């Protein structure tokens, strides 16, 4: 099986680490996997890749294409790729009603299989036959580490407690205002709030292991990878109830779901800080099967089904 991933390459780090990690996990199960990086933003930017993508598919004898995010999927549809598997992410759900109609149109008439990341996404989009396959977490990359070693890498003060806001605060949907206002209510100079800006994915393990609590206050998510990665590192967690976090956290001690209220987030943060220990999150991740190897096997099954 010769597989092609199609995705935007417009971020600061090019192709999203989520897509790269998924491709890496699939490698052992296919003859070859290649990634086509879309350059350019907006409708005209994407359309400029049309001829290049057609040529790339023809020259590499691709058997099946897997497009990630809705705009990449529209481009792949215009190339008339068959078979075409599409993965929609959390941001694709929170579009206006017209765009949801467009997604349903492409899914019904063109896409061979549509993948979403959670039950909430499936319900929101109204695609009855969509497959629910969350992104997996690399259990070899995201591991518990000695906190002192991790702190040496991040340079954080070892005498203080650390809360990691697991996102770029400039992204509206990550709702940094709630995180910051909740942190202010703690009123403890020995606790610091950090955020993630321009941190390479391969360095993230040090940030997870340096912090005492991972915090996510997003308005919406599909299946947030940072939560799964933090769980794999056995981090205490506080998150709003978005995507599939209820399922991902389960009943893991030291992990809390908060309301969209400053006081509740602040209270849950203080509970997590008092937990003062590693969690058993890694065991739960293995139990529910969202490690990258298991997710890769689910994707291979989908590819085989559409190739029949």
Can you tell me about this structure?
The chain is of the alpha/beta class and 308 residues long. It contains 15 helices and eleven strands. It has helices at 17-26, 42-47, 50-59, 70-78, 90-93, 97-109, 119-125, 147-154, 176-184, 204-210, 225-232, 245-249, 262-275, 281-288, 292-307, and strands at 2-8, 32-38, 64-68, 84-87, 113-116, 131-132, 161-165, 191-195, 213-216, 237-240, 255-258. Helix 7 links the parallel strand 5 and strand 6. The mean pLDDT is 95.
List keywords for this structure.
308 residues; Rossmann fold; 5-stranded parallel β-sheet; alpha/beta; 6-stranded parallel β-sheet; 2 domains; globular
> According to CATH, what is the topology of the largest domain?
Rossmann fold
How many strands in all? Answer: 11
Structural class: alpha/beta
Radius of gyration: 20 Å
**In angstroms, what separates the terminal alpha carbons?**
12 Å
The helicity comes to 40-55%
In the CATH classification, which architecture of the largest domain applies?
3-Layer(aba) Sandwich
What is the N-to-C order of secondary-structure elements (H for helix, E for strand)? EHEHHEHEHHEHEHEHEHEHEHEHHH
Strand order of the largest sheet: 2-1-3-4-5-6
Query: What is the CATH C-level name of the largest domain?
Result: Alpha Beta
Please indicate the count of domains: 2
Low-confidence parts, pLDDT < 50 over ≥5 residues? Answer: none
Shape: globular
User: Approximately what portion of the residues adopt beta-strand conformation?
Assistant: 15-25%
Number of helices: 15
Q: Write out the CATH superfamily name of the largest domain.
A: Glycogen Phosphorylase B
Q: What integer is the average pLDDT?
A: 95
**Describe the biggest sheet?**
6 strands, parallel
């Amino acid at each position: 099986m010769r597989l092609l991933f199609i995705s935007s390459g417009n971020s600061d780090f090019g192709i999203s680490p989520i897509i790269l990690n998924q491709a890496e996990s699939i490698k052992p199960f296919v003859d070859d996997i290649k990634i086509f990086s879309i350059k350019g933003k907006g409708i005209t930017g994407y359309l400029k890749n049309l001829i290049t993508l057609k040529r790339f598919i023809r020259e590499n004898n691709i058997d099946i294409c897997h497009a990630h995010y809705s705009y990449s999927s529209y481009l792949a549809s215009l190339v008339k790729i068959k078979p075409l598997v599409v993965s929609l992410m959390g941001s694709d759900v929170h579009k206006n009603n017209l765009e949801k109609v467009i997604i349903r149109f492409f899914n019904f008439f063109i896409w061979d299989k549509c993948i979403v990341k959670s039950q909430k996404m499936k319900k929101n989009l109204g695609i009855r036959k969509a497959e629910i396959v969350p992104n997996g977490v690399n259990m070899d990359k995201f591991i518990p580490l000695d906190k002192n070693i991790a702190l040496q890498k991040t340079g954080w003060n070892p005498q203080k407690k650390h809360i990691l806001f697991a996102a770029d605060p400039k992204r509206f949907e990550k709702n940094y205002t709630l995180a910051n206002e909740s942190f202010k209510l703690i009123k403890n100079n020995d606790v610091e709030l950090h955020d993630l800006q321009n941190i390479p994915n391969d360095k993230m393990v040090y940030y997870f292991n340096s912090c005492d609590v991972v915090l996510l206050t997003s308005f919406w998510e599909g299946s947030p990878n940072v939560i799964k990665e933090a769980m794999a590192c056995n981090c205490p967690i506080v998150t709003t109830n978005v995507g599939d976090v209820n399922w991902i956290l389960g009943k893991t001690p030291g992990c809390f779901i908060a309301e969209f209220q400053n006081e509740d987030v602040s209270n849950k943060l203080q509970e997590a800080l008092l937990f003062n220990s590693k969690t058993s999150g890694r065991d739960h991740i293995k139990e529910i099967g969202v490690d990258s190897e298991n997710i890769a096997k689910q994707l291979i099954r989908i590819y085989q089904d559409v190739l029949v």
